[in-house]
Amino acid sequence: MTEAEQITYPTSLGTSSPEEIRLLGQNLTEDLMGKVGFGELAFWLVAMRRPTPSETRVFEAVLVALADHGFTPTAIAARLTYLSAPDALQGALAAGLLGGGSRFLGVTEDTGVFLAGALASADELPDSEAGWDELAAAAIRARRAAGQLVPGLGHPVHKAGDPRTPVLISLAREAGVYGPYLSLFESVGRVHPAILGRTLPLNGAGVCGAALADAGIDVALLRGVALLARCAGLLGHLAEEMRRPVGNAIYQAVDRNAVYLPPDA
Q1: What pLDDT, in 10s, does the model give residues 32-62?
Q2: CA 154/CA 139 separation, integer angstroms
Q3: Closest-CA residue to 107 (of 206, 235, 250)
Q4: Fold category of 52-245 in CATH
């Protein structure tokens, strides 16, 4: 095989030589370390462009909003996996991350995809609140007709209102990152009671998806951002499990209260 015929594997992320490490076209040690925050770097890696200070502020607010929410199934999975395999911290982290789906964490992506579809269906973006409400109503009716839930609505704990939602919307407005995704998401909050016959809160995972999309993150990557945030929370749970373990108590509570039923019951 000639040199011209050699296989190449292109990347615009990182590479290294005996003398230096390059990341995103920058010298890692001279241009990035101590000069770029992790949130800014994560955005840069995902979007392949350096975020503005306003985008970084919103992005990092999302990471904080999604980092932890108590003893969720993802946290419990991580703790119980650590109980079973304390020699494999990576397995416990992975177990928690694998639980990011349509009910926990995955809602961030699901909401972004839902809003993106609704926006794509419009010939032009609305220029009034009434226009946004009309677009939102059409999208909700389409979901209902298909027998699907509207992502971003409802929360198992914050039934009267998710405290993260107004804060992130206000922050996005203040930072100048409020765009069509958040506009449509707020309209979903206004019009859904008349269509669904009940009032549900706009949840934090959903508003995070809308805010990230307005900041320029591809909706196909939103779940990954949510998992990036939750990884920090899970690491915190595992650190606490080492200091003050509860995993065995959780296991024992289930095991001791298990009730056998015949297979044909």
Answers
A1: 999 999 999 999 999 999 999 999 999 999 9
A2: 17
A3: 206
A4: Cytochrome p450-Terp; domain 2 (1.10.230)
Q: Which regions in the chain score pLDDT beneath 50?
A: none
Q: For residue 21, give the DSSP letter.
A: E
Q: What is the DSSP letter of 103?
A: T
Give the alpha-carbon dihedral of 51, 104, 201, 128, to 10 degrees.
40
Q: How many residues does the chain have?
A: 265
> Would you say 47 and 217 are in contact if contact means Cβ atoms under 8 Å apart?
yes
**Angle between helix 222-243 and 73-84 (nearest 10):** 50
User: Alpha-carbon distance 252 to 257, whole Å?
Assistant: 8
Distance CA 150, CA 158 (A): 17
Task: Give the Cα-Cα-Cα angle 170, 57, 111 (nearest 5 degrees).
Answer: 65
Torsion over CA of 219, 224, 227 and 232, rounded to 10 degrees? Answer: -110
AA letter at 249:
A
Chain segment 1-26, per-residue pLDDT in tens: 566 668 888 999 999 999 999 999 99
Strand partners, 101: 105
Would you kindly state where each structural domain of the chain is located, as residue ranges?
52-245
Residues 6+ apart with CB under 8 A from 49: 216
The answer to whether 207 and 169 are in contact (CB under 8 A) is: yes
Q: Write down the pLDDT at residue 238.
A: 98
